[in-house]
Amino acid sequence: MRDRVLSGMRPTGKVHLGNYLGAIANWVKLQDDYDCFYFVADWHALTDDYSHSKEIPENTVEMIADWLGAGLSPERSTLFVQSLVPEHAELHLLFSMIIPVSWLERVPTYKEQIEQLELQSPSYGLLGYPLLQAADILIYKPRYVPVGADQLPHIELTREVARRFNNAFGPVFPEPDAKLTEIPKVPGTDGRKMSKSYGNAIYLSDPVDVITPKVKRMMTDPARKRRSDPGNPEICPVFDLHRIFTPDGPREACAVGCRTAGIGCLDCKAVLLEHLLPRLEGIRERRQKFIEKPNEIVEILREGSKKARRFAQGTMDEARRALGMDL
Ligand code: TRP
Ligand code: SF4
Fold it and tell me: What is the CA(258)–ligand 2 centre distance, in A?
């Protein structure tokens, strides 16, 4: 039996290069070695903004088209939707009885969200976000949870929840480990971190004639005002993308050309496009085929959710038995 991995993503809609390189590309690789469960955390999407609940199904379909285009496969992985496995909510409720509020108030992402979104009265659901995440994870008893470093406090809490439950009722939940994804620096077109909300993202669904002008207008080392001004690739966001997509030889040639003003920024960007576009074209073609048949995407998710649910029901039976509440 292969070890299981479990991870999830909120349905933010179209996937951009930052999401792809930071998570999905790694999920695709893990399919070779693990029994993979990947899900859409649609309930989690309600914790910061429930007013857009009606957009969640469409965002889910768009995101899954990108997952499939990127190489996640329903034959190799279980792809499912959190809200189609209501056992997550049941386990969350049991956990909510044994976890002190103070544990959740201490989670750094809770305070950050309140500050960032300037929330006057944060919801019960926002406080419980990491506890629902613990239920998402523990119900599948995974060995590993592939996540970015920002999620480490949530994985640590998950382990503490497992320990507390096991101490109180007997061993049901093995403690999973985070599997840290090495996330390359993926700047957006304005040089800040790539993010949907900054409007600086390159999407997997962008065709060539959308990506090309985005890259051409991308911010560079501001010292290179004129073609004859030398620049510094180390501080240039275009070069961060070179590091991800361009092989050593041509990339070094660009670095030298930049420092000596031997090439212009448009030349440098043309080299980047030469390597970036073919990598993205295959993904886009595949995602396009899927998005034309949204019913197939829905079917994949329903089937995956049925399979996930059978597993989750098995764990819930054990948990109820452990509590002695299995009438
Ligand atoms: N909190 C995660 C994020 O924002 C999403 C998530 C929800 C998740 N439940 C999970 C990730 C369970 C891994 C495992 O990225
Ligand atoms: Fe950036 Fe390339 Fe221009 Fe140098 S030449 S500043 S690395 S885009």
Answer: 6
